[in-house]
Design goal:
This protein has 154 residues and is α+β, with helices and mostly antiparallel strands. It has one domain: Roll (Thiol Ester Dehydrase, Chain A), CATH 3.10.129. Helix content is 16%, strand content 40%. A hairpin with a 2-residue loop joins strand 5 and strand 6.
Length: 154
């Protein structure tokens, strides 16, 4: 299918700067797989406090980038654009492993494959690589749920 730029991605998930962690989708096939890119910049807000003398992208944010790519894939598979009525929540992780640090200047390539999607719940396998080196891998679970609006004055 056609690649997706940042404006396209924002049509499918509610994340925005500074927490939108995928910049582009280079490949996708509904119900099967997605490949997304994250350009890791020295200007990322987390680098100021996460090992500031040895900048390393936090592993939880690498996992979050994989979860966001899986949410985009689920939304594309279900034909569901973000209209504010529902969200894809990250609800589970299994077998997460970190193999390589990710530093400013790296380009993270996230590949997610569908194990199954049924009744708004998706299970995926995901990898994040820098070049041909594996940075992280995990099995992810997401669920589409109704979005609740915050109370007035909250």
């Amino acid at each position: 299918m056609e690649p997706l730029g940042i404006d396209d991605i924002k049509q499918y998930i509610a994340h925005r700067y500074p927490f939108l962690l995928i910049d582009r989708v280079t490949e996708w096939e509904a119900g099967k797989r997605i490949v997304a890119l994250k350009n890791v910049s020295a200007n990322e807000p987390f680098f100021a406090g996460h090992f500031p003398n040895q900048a390393v992208m936090p592993g939880v944010l690498i996992i979050e980038a994989m979860a966001q790519a899986s949410a985009v894939l689920a939304a594309l598979t279900l034909g569901k654009k973000d209209d504010g009525s529902s969200l894809f929540y990250f609800v589970g992780i299994d077998n997460a492993r970190f193999k390589r640090v990710v530093r400013p200047g790296d380009q993270l390539t996230v590949e997610v494959n569908v194990l199954r999607i049924a009744r708004g719940i998706g299970k995926f396998t995901a990898t994040a690589k820098v070049g041909d080196q594996l940075a992280a891998e995990a099995e992810l679970l997401s669920a589409m749920r109704s979005a609740t609006k915050p109370e007035a004055g909250a």
